[in-house]
Structures are given as C-alpha cells and as structure tokens.
Amino acid sequence: MATTGIINGSQYTVMFDTDGGTPVVADNVTDLSVSISTDTRDTTTKNNGGYRAILPGLKSLSVNFTAYYANDATNGFDELMADFLTGAKQDVKVTSYDWDADSEIAGDMEITFEAYITSLELSAGTEDNTSYTCTLECVSAITYAAHV
Prior knowledge:
mainly beta; globular
C-alpha cells in the first residue's frame, strides 16, 4: 500500500544492474539525490520587446548517491567499477523501499531509466568510514509511475 504523509528519506534508495538485468538495491547507501532538468534554447528576437524568449530543449536526469564501501557488498562499488571500466549501460530504478520486508513499496512512485556511470569517487579519510559517490546519467526515456 502506498505510503501516506511525508515520506521518510531513508525509505528511498537506488537500484541498478548491468543493462538487461533486473536492478538490485545498492548496498549501504547513505545519501541519494535525483536531478531532472530541461535545457533551454534561446529564441529571442527584436520583436520580444527586450525580454528573453526560450523554448524547451534537451531533458536530462542524473542520480547521485553516496554509500559506504564494503568488500562483501553484493551490489556496490566493485560492481559499479567493473561496469564503469567496460562502459556498460545500467538499468536504474529510484524507488521507495520497505527495509523490514526487503521489498519495494507498492503504490509509491518510482523512476526507471537507463544510464551510464559518469563519475565514481572513492573516499577514505583517516580513521573514517570508506565511502564512494556515484553519478548515473540518463540516456533513455524516463518512466515515472507507481510501483505495482
């Protein structure tokens, strides 16, 4: 059943797998952001009376997430690095997840798309948790729908 009220940010996560696979929850995610935008193209003419005129252009979507690095993670930095090195496309899903039931929440909205890994950064501070940050850039149509 769909979540009601304000959704706890810990509930949303990212899932990914190599193109053609079924996306799996990324392990140990601590932070997630989704950015969707439309580039504009300038259509200003002298007839616009000194005001700028624009029309929509290319749409883009990027997902950035941070996660703790673990050698025993089943879907984390090592899998992303292997796909980054081969240039493999990713099937990606940003979804609402019930951690106790280990399943996606039916009725909550999710975003699905295909992407390439455009950035992967590993951070290891002195006496701190090792973490990584990943950026996935959309290269397909975007589906925004309730999870069934």
